[in-house]
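Q: Predict the assembly, please.
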Amino acid sequence: MMLAAAFTSRRGTLLLLVAVMLLVPLVAPSSFYLRVAALVWIFALAALGLTIVMGYAGQVSLGHAGFLGIGAYAVAIGPRHLALDPLLSLALGALLCGLVAYLVGKPILKLKGYYLAIATLGFGLIVALVLASESAVTGGPDGMPVARLSLFGWRVTGALTWYWVTAGALLLGALLALNVEASPTGRALRALHDSEIAAAGAGVDVASKKLAAFVIGAVYAGIAGALLALMNGLITPETAGFMHSIELVAMVIIGGLGSVTGAVVGAAFLVVLPQALTSLQEYEQAVLGLLIMVFMIFLPSGIVPTLRRLVLERAS
Amino acid sequence: MAEFLQLVFSGLTVGVVYALVAMGFTLVYNASDVINFAQGDFVMIGGMGTVFLASAGIALPLAALIAVLAAVVVGLLLHRLAIEPARRATPVTLIMITIGASIFIKGVALIAFDKQFHSLPAFSGSDPIAVAGATILPQSLWVASGALALFAGLSLFLKKTLLGKALLATAANRLAARLVGINVAAILALAFGVSAAIGAVAGILVTPITLTRYDVGTLFALKGFAAAMVGGMGHPFGAIAGGLAIGLLEAFGAGYVSSTYKDAVAFLAILLVLFVMPRGLFGGRSVERV
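A: Predicted assembly structure:
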């Protein structure tokens, strides 16, 4: 019953997440595992943003890592070139992501299906290209160092600290996403996901709801990117690259499109897997591609919806 | 003027290759509604396969032939093992399957070949030919004439042979095609095989100019996909026009704006085209069926 509740209710999802977050530091054998877990929380946050765009609103984005890059470079460039506080830079970066998403999203969200896919892909590519080319500001293809984050004189450093900072950020993000899902906007998004025309007929302002989802998703990715940069202390243009965008989409789909748990599970899968595969060295890429294919072919609805079905069947 | 002409030549050379990749996208898309992101990797298999077979002492034409056949086998396997079992999946899931396939093919190529850039000798020397103040590489002529031959052959195949007509019929309406007795599954496999062959030939033709490596497929797939979309997905002429347009835009972007931002110029142009014509140049008016 408890398992079933974890899959079906808002509070259940959050409790499950908190339980896992509390458990991981107890069983992690070394700080390396904590860092990997912190990476999972960060990418889960970005995947949550994409879940709002793809899962709730049903709009494909193949350039979401572009926002990850904007957020990351905001906390790198702000303190270094503009003498801004890292935390203020993070907030400004998130704001910038929202603004860029608004300006870019307004025209391109009119496109549908594959046309939207290529437009978002182009956006991501352009962001990555700018970050790699404007060497004077961004350090070029080699990237740039990121100043340490300090909160009210307390330096945020160490694997365990970052674990809790990122876990807290993800928890806030999950809470917000779950509330969006249950809000009138969430219902409107699901309605337009199923049929834009029916949703418009029922009085949903399709264009502005889609744009809202895109902006929220971008802000999530921007904050995730900033946390990634601050934790790693170094950032490269690859953060915004095409492969990262694809990984984000893979997280959302492999986990299970449209659910908060799905985004977290998908992020965990795609962050932990390459770490586990590094021992395979040159076979890493082949195995990764193979696993993505196998999961998509045999679990097309994703890990979480499949598990949920199994659990609910057993419970009933 | 000479500079302009030079940019046109180099733009058309790469544009033709993008057009070939876009043609592969179009064939598969028309037959099966699948966007095959592994399309660019067929280009890599053609180029890398030929390089490694030739270095093993096999004569270049034979090496090229074997490489094309290898790409066809990969295309058929991709269809049989990855696309066919997932027939009822959503478009996004199908895209992810082909992206997974693309990563897998690159991974295997990394193991089978290596991480280095490789080249092939130009087919007929590398002395540039002077044309009205600009120069053109003999290999560019090979690329252009090879592509023309492929387009012509494909067009003949689709219009004159029973198999080609069956492919067109399947593209037009799968259910109706099945009703008149066409083996739709075999036709889909054929589309994957033919698009793989086209990609591989493009890869062999262009390798003497652009070099090749295990991961060149990604960029070819992105540009080919963009070309197909700009032309209007599913339209063969759109694919050719889109490919040439992107090649030219890239060349002009590199020549007149900045060589670092040539990709950005091309993609900005694509975004502009899509804003004005949301279904591409040849896609017709945007009509949604309810």
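Chain A touches chain B at residues 54, 60, 107-108, 110-115, 117-119, 121-123, 125-126, 129-130, 133, 195, 197, 242, 246, 249-250, 253, 257, 282-293, 296-297, 300 (CB under 8 Å). The beta strands of chain A are 144-145, 150-151, 154-155, 234-235.
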